[in-house]
Amino acid sequence: MIRIRKAGRVTAAVLAAGAVTALAGAPAQAATKADGASWTADVSTVDTDDVNVAAAGGTLTLADAAWHRTARVFAGSEGSLTTAEHALGSAANRVSAELSADTPKGTSIDVDVRGRTGVNDWTEWTPAGTTLKSAVSSVQVRISLHSTTDGVRPSVKSVKLSADNAPQVNALAETAALTYKVYGTREGLIGGTTANGHVITSRDHFVALPSGKGLSGKGSGTYSVRVCRTDGSKCEYAPVWDIGPWNEQDDYWNPASIRTKFKDLPQGQPEAYAAYYNGYNGGKSGLGYKVANPAGIDLADGVFWDGLGMSDNGNVNVTYLWTGSGPTGVVSTAGDPMNVRASASTSATIKGLAANYAKVNIECYVEGDTVTGKFGTSNIWDRIGPGHYVSDTYLQTGSDLPVAPKC
């Protein structure tokens, strides 16, 4: 992300008191310009996937200068705007941003980008100016505004964007999604608001991770996880709808070459774990709080109680599904999570739940009981994990035919 905090932190030219223009991601190595890939983001239109921002006179600012998501208790405010998808003239692996904004003391602005890699698939949100994990043909931009003081707002006047192809230094070779054992805590906070603007309900089904790189939009599961008890007896597939616990820039599942902060920690180890057990960073989070537990994931009540059957915080195995490759499908139900079965039968043992909107990886398919679901009637069942089967009639795959090979 491009982050404006003060002139000394970015390449900036002062336009007036409190006003700056910053250039993110100026190429440090030889790069190839993508055809026709320069445009200006629309910051004048706010819609349902945007959080606590308002546009007036073509300028984007915080709607409520004292609002923040429930999990974050602090003075000031935050909000974000996600632009419409923009098609590039030719494939590119880097998007840079030139930002014109007013940033009073105590305010900051971040610009992140992501690229589409398939029908339902996107790269992680990546700071503008850094290399995406692969070349993409269309992109989205997320502009985040922050304030540490009630009543003080930053504002964005324009965001000019350009795409090019940089030497690929952060490519990931994994084909299977990454899995790590981390400490999970119950989020609770019913009636509160998550980082993507979702209002938390009783027995809700989502998770929080301590980085915005894997944050799904409201009503979306682009970034989803499989979280399981350590003995594998119960699992849930759930979307990432909040940021936390403890940190906001700790994408600990990524290798050091990509991880935003705490690059000296082992891949898969949350900063909170190192702070709690090893006194890392003086025992404090990246936000300066004394870490009271080693959590690397927060679980909404429905995941905690219903999906996993947990009664207390504890270790869980988490698979970060978007880090894998292969065919995917999006769970689409009337709202309640669907059962995940041990085989392709409606009477097979229930192994867990798959929440509405969760994007799951489809390993292969089998033929089993005939089921009538949201997408018709079929005897096709998809294997979405080890011994985990769901009816294809509840997965939006973009095809009426199986999208994976037969098991």
Notes on the protein architecture:
The chain has 407 residues and is mainly beta. It has three domains: 2-165; 178-323, Barwin-like endoglucanases; 328-396, Roll (SH3 type barrels). It is built from two helices and 26 strands. The chain has helices spanning 271-278, 301-307; strands at 2-4, 12-16, 19-23, 32-40, 53-56, 59-62, 77-82, 86-102, 107-115, 126-127, 131-147, 155-165, 178-186, 207-209, 224-229, 235-243, 295-299, 314-320, 328-331, 338-341, 350-354, 359-361, 364-373, 376-385, 388-391, 395-396. The strands form four sheets. Strands 1, 2, 3, 4, 5, 6, 7, 8, 9, 10, 11 and 12 form a twelve-stranded antiparallel β-sheet that branches. A hairpin with a 2-residue loop joins strand 24 and strand 25. It starts with a strand and ends in an 11-residue tail after the last strand. The relative contact order is 0.13. Residues 1-31 have low confidence and may be disordered.
Task: Name a few traits of the molecule.
407 residues, mainly beta, Barwin-like endoglucanases, SH3 type barrels, six-stranded mixed beta barrel, 2 helices
